[in-house]
């Protein structure tokens, strides 16, 4: 017995659904990409997983649909409706979550001068006023810092500690904004702010979704004597090394000098994913189906398990085994001619007809440990693959009807 007919039907249905998605959108028209992705993950993927809900979802790395919908509902409550979740789920205040900035920081015609930004390494600039920014993150917090270098002398230092919930990107653009606020009121002499490339691309975009980035653009747009340039990290530049030290020291501060920044959406989304993963893990541990797969895949994951179908058949006991076929009356008995019950363990360890594919028999009390070891061993998995091919090829040999020894 096999599931080829079922698999073919579900594959055909999944392809039809995918083709329907292609009809409602193109590269530049139709349903937005994020909506198409949601349709694919919540409809097409579920069609492929139909038939063995618990263990197939774990193998495919697809969380149960109700958990996915629960995560989406929680995200909608926090991001769109600005409603708090129940206290047993999270203590996050929706007002503390960063909102995407809308609109333009300036009219599109009011762009920056081409000489105000540069993506080339500005580390070789050694004259005039230079401002170096940096950020750091440790287990204690996130640090942001900048220092001002005049010729070879450091004339100003600034650093601040942020919450662990903030990202290094927040620290980088905050230090960039503080550096610009510091120098914008100074003399009109030529000065350069040196930052990493990602920060430049984010902050000089007038249509940035980050509120700090938009503030930076507005400030930079006015004084044409300030230039922002890229710089390589850990290249031995004095100012960069000093700002790096300041940022690391800031993570050790006992207080938070700056007003707390709003939490990024990415952090909340990661939290909701982790919450869903934990709930899925509890359901997998306490479930009553797929217990054989639990022995070899104790932890759920969003990544599919890289194994062949034949390997899974042996571990779950579904396949050309007399013990399985007898349940559906496809074999007259579950006993094999060599006087053993035709279980996967029997074929893989003691059956006289499969000697070429034998592995060391597991101790009964440690069978799940042995299965897990076999599943992670490439040589054993190859033996399993060949064994299943042999059983499927020699069907008539392994379905001989023999009397029950009892």
Automatic annotation (TrEMBL):
RNase H type-1 domain sequence ranges: 125-252
GO MF, one example: nucleic acid binding
Gene3D superfamilies membership: Ribonuclease H-like superfamily/Ribonuclease H
Protein name (Swiss-Prot/TrEMBL): RNase H type-1 domain-containing protein
Species, as recorded: Araneus ventricosus (Orbweaver spider)
Lineage: Eukaryota, Metazoa, Ecdysozoa, Arthropoda, Chelicerata
